[in-house]
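Re: beginner question about structure tokens

> Can someone show what the tokenized structure looks like for a real chain? I only ever see the sequence side.

Sure, here's an example I had lying around. Input first:
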Amino acid sequence: MRTRISEISKSIKKGELALFCGAGISRNSGLPLADELKGYVLKDLLIDEKDINEIMNFPLPFEVFMETILENTDISRILDIFEDGKPNTNHLLFARLAKNGYLRTIFTTNFDLLLEKALEEEGLRRDRHFKVYYNEKQFSEIDSKEISDKMIKIIKIHGSIDDRSSIRMVLDTVASKVLSDKRMKVVENLFSTGNHKKVLILGYSCSDEFDITPQIRSIDRNHKLIILVDHSEEERVEDIRTRDSRNPFKNFHGIRLICNTDKLIEELWNSLREIIGEKYVPIHEYTGYRTEWRRYIHDWSKRLEKDKKHAKYSIVASIFLDITNFKKSIEYFERSIEIAELMGDRIAQSMSIGNLGRVYAISGTFKNAIECHRKSLKIAKKIGYETGEMKSYTNLGGVYHSLGDLETAIEYCKKALEVAIRIGDKIEESASYGNLGHICSDLGDFRKAIDYYDRSLRMHQVLGNKMDESSSYIGLGNVYSRLTYFERALECYAKALKIALQIGNRVQEGVIYENLGTTYLMKGDFELGTENYLRSLEINREIENKQGESSCYLGLGNIYFCLHDFEKAVEYYEKSLSIAEQIGNEKGKSLGYIGLGNVYSGLGDFETAREYYLKAER
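And the corresponding structure tokens:
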């Protein structure tokens, strides 16, 4: 281990290193770590202990957790926590190295002010000696030649607490599985294109599958050498590529140092003593600092209990939806609806009923979803809540589309588009174009479908909405596939898959592989068709997407029917049909019956085939 520390020390002295640090470096600074804060918020919401444990045991990113709270309530009081705290030995070490010219670039996911405070304690001044980058505009300036190489750069990928809007934007984009091109460039600069040779990573767990790690994984050239410090009481060194889980560095070179981080910092400090000029002080002795951060959360929850009690249950319901526990999500949304009704908060009532409908739709219980969305729409129209009206139309369009009632679906989507344009909601307008493209494609009106998808794609690219940009490419791929322009379809799917992998969107990844399976089936390449359907099936099982699972079984049934392996085809059609019946998907049921009818027709059993075709018509 000392040999490795000596190597790090030499790299620092040569100025070869950039630093990437996460929340772990702020331990003992008086601020809570992410899981501490999440746990205390959940306890203050007074929910069941078993429910708290289930949420805490799920790898839900902190940013997604906070965005869910932000969607339902003002989080200003919670964010106040991050203006507090005092720099610890870690921050002081980095500040001393930066001051003396050995560390020029620090990347961090933290939005606290501890690094800035440490630099200022060393006599450095912001915008004179160091510059902080934390928003879209500033990220585009990082490689500008106008900025002196002598200027220390702190690049805060998740925003900065002294600009609350930057944090709110990041929470929203991470939760929406969106990463702007500028933020993606920041990640690429750190791990591929920057002037440094190596990246030292401290206090970062690589667990944010919805955010930075997909970007790292997508980098396919000019990889920096990685030195990742993994906190543990054990002590060993392994190749950075060794681990299979939570490891975005499978294609990089470097090492993982498993050790006590505090001890590593102490030894590193002592090895750089001539630069730092002061004896190491243990981290707990240096800070000796505690904030009363729990009172900030208590103040927030008290205000919530008084003014928006229903929001407590909406928050928990939304978190359970994030972790795909639909039963619990339904339970908490129902409580939220009851309380909103008792309080006479009609907007909250409409929102919670609409959200309950979303849960039913995602879990495949379409009849209940329609009932909820109609109730939500009725309330929204009665009180003049246009955003709620628009969302209800969109949701109803989606459900009827899933059920195969395309005329009703297109009617609702056009109504949603009208409201979106009227109120100037560009995000919903672009989404409506995509929804209309999908329906027109299913109706066989490919010219209109391409037009709608192109409009949607252009708007999403301008808005920087990567997830929906991917959706537009998927839609265009589907249209081109149906037109038998297979090469164009494959190009669109490749673009969509690249984005889905970058943003870590497993749902879209599953959809793309399913669509690739269908395209290869249509091309007559049954081997690649099967391979892609099986990839999609595996993903859909992992994320418990029943509708996707049913579609994959249907596709596999179609392949084995084409191969005249009727026994296998029947097996897959029946699996698809069983799930479609279970979730109430009428379109899926109809397609399953048609598949079985085709098999029995191929076997010459025309009476049985006729029975299945009649069932499909019903």
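Each token stands for a local structural state, so reading them left to right follows the chain. Residues 505-618 form a domain with the Serine Threonine Protein Phosphatase 5, Tetratricopeptide repeat fold (CATH 1.25.40.10).
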